[in-house]
Design brief:
The chain has 223 residues and is an alpha+beta fold. It contains five helices and eleven strands. It folds into two domains: 88 residues, wza like domain (wza like fold, 2-Layer Sandwich), CATH 3.30.1950; 80 residues, Outer membrane lipoprotein wza fold like.
């Protein structure tokens, strides 16, 4: 009987020990969550801005019949009694516009009247005696581009009668590594690119511009 009571007492003590709460340190070890840092996403790069254009006022040079259409200009093509062939068209960077039936047509480098005549000739296969009018709605901010060995590579706003010397000066001049005798201008007109040589050293020495006149969209390359 004494042995049985001792066994029951031992069992009671063991049960009581199993129900004793864990220490504060033990509870923290068991319940503390593991946090994982989430890497922040980098902000998306902003989309490039489209070329700046300005509406054409009645007194603007772009309203003149002698205005030369440039890349990124916005023009209105009106075919008399043919609304499906009429509309406004942006001049692409390659100098072309796309019209129904006739496809791609070179626009940059032509006056509105010249372009209208070209479109009318193309439409004669589909329309009897087409009467085509071309109007400039908005023009791109006029500029030339400089790349290569110049102080500041990029676009330079073009002013009336600007010379290659003036454009290069506006871009910070030539670097010490420039080949001043082999400068050239790349020009796109009627869908074709031409290379115009320009001797910067000669022009600087005696003012001989070699008959080169800049037009909007020209790229001056300084090797």
């Amino acid at each position: 009987m004494i042995r049985c009571s001792a066994v029951l007492a031992f069992a009671s003590v063991a049960a009581t020990a199993s129900l004793t709460p864990l220490s504060a340190a033990a509870q923290q070890t068991v319940t503390k969550p593991i946090l994982t840092a989430t890497p922040a996403q980098a902000p998306a790069a902003p989309a490039p801005a489209p070329p700046a254009t300005v509406p054409v006022a009645a007194s603007s040079p772009a309203a003149s019949p002698s205005y030369i259409i440039s890349q990124d200009d916005n023009i209105q093509v009106t075919v008399w009694k043919e609304p499906s062939l009429s509309g406004s068209f942006p001049v692409r960077p390659d100098g072309m516009i796309s019209l129904a039936l006739v496809g791609d047509i070179p626009a940059a480098g032509s006056t509105p009247m010249q372009l209208g005549a070209v479109i009318a000739t193309r439409l004669k296969k589909y329309v009897d005696d087409p009467l085509v009018t071309v109007t400039v709605l908005a023009v791109r901010v006029k500029q030339v581009f400089l790349i290569g060995e110049v102080g500041h590579v990029g676009a330079v706003p073009i002013t009336p009668d600007m010379t290659p010397l003036q454009a290069i000066a506006a871009a910070g001049g030539l670097t010490p590594y420039a080949n001043a005798k082999r400068v050239y201008i790349l020009r796109t007109a009627n869908g074709k690119e031409t290379k115009i040589p320009f001797n910067y050293k000669k022009a600087l020495k005696d003012g001989n511009e070699q008959g080169v006149e800049l037009v909007p969209g020209d790229t001056i390359v300084v090797p």
